[in-house]
Design brief:
- About 25% of the residues lie in helices and about 30% in strands.
- It is of the alpha+beta class.
- It has two domains: about 10-125, Double Stranded RNA Binding Domain, CATH 3.30.160; about 135-200, OB fold (Dihydrolipoamide Acetyltransferase, E2P), CATH 2.40.50.140.
- A hairpin with a 2-residue loop joins strand 3 and strand 4 (about 85-90).
- It is globular.
């Protein structure tokens, strides 16, 4: 799991200088979408915080024709070049039915690219980056109030377990119900994703 990214205190001018080429985002088999492009650009910015010297970045969102098959499965290809390494993710031949949601396909491909980029940075620097927890938004989908826990569904469809003790302030627990939007910090535990610093939006 990717966890989160280190802080990026660079100015916009420094970011523009570091990113030597503009990202190329291509759509195949589907119309371009500002929402999808915005999600991809945010993920690219997150990758830049691990390695600021990208010399090329190409992302292809593809919806292949599936004759005789039900459902649509998106393929998101991420190709990034940095000094000393080339990152290629999302070109696995098998079909992942979780990728019937384009945002999940984007998440998985960029997570894979980030792992590769972390490995490249570790090999070049001799140590592993320790990212900070990622802040997210989601909606409470289940509450087990008597036992003091519940579940949050993030915007990309993932579900995060949380406990009463995960709330940012005392007294909020009794006000929580399903359907309430919250912000929280992502974590990946041995039993799956969980949330901390949960607060109603």
């Amino acid at each position: 799991m990717f966890g989160a990214t280190p802080k990026d205190n660079r100015t916009s001018e420094e970011k523009a200088e570091a990113m030597q080429v503009s990202p190329q985002i291509t759509f195949k088999g589907l119309e371009s979408s500002p929402r999808i492009e915005d999600t991809i650009r945010k993920r690219i910015e997150r990758l830049e915080q691990f390695h600021s010297r990208m010399t090329s970045c190409r992302v292809t969102v593809e919806l292949p024709h599936r004759h005789g098959h039900k459902g649509k499965i998106y393929h998101v290809h991420v190709d990034i070049t940095v000094p000393g390494a080339e990152i290629v993710a999302g070109r696995e031949p098998e079909e992942n039915h979780a990728h019937e949601h384009v945002m999940v396909a984007i998440r998985d491909s960029f997570n894979a690219a980030q792992r590769q980029l972390e490995d490249a940075v570790r090999k070049m620097s001799g140590h592993r980056i320790k990212p900070e927890p990622m802040k997210s938004h989601g909606t409470i989908v289940r509450m087990v109030a008597d036992e003091g826990f519940g579940f949050i569904r993030a915007l990309d469809g993932r579900e995060f377990f949380f406990r009463r003790e995960s709330l940012t302030a005392d007294g909020q627990w009794d006000d929580l119900t399903t359907g309430i939007d919250v912000r929280f910090t992502e974590h990946e535990g041995e039993k799956g994703p969980y949330a901390s610093a949960v607060a109603p939006v």
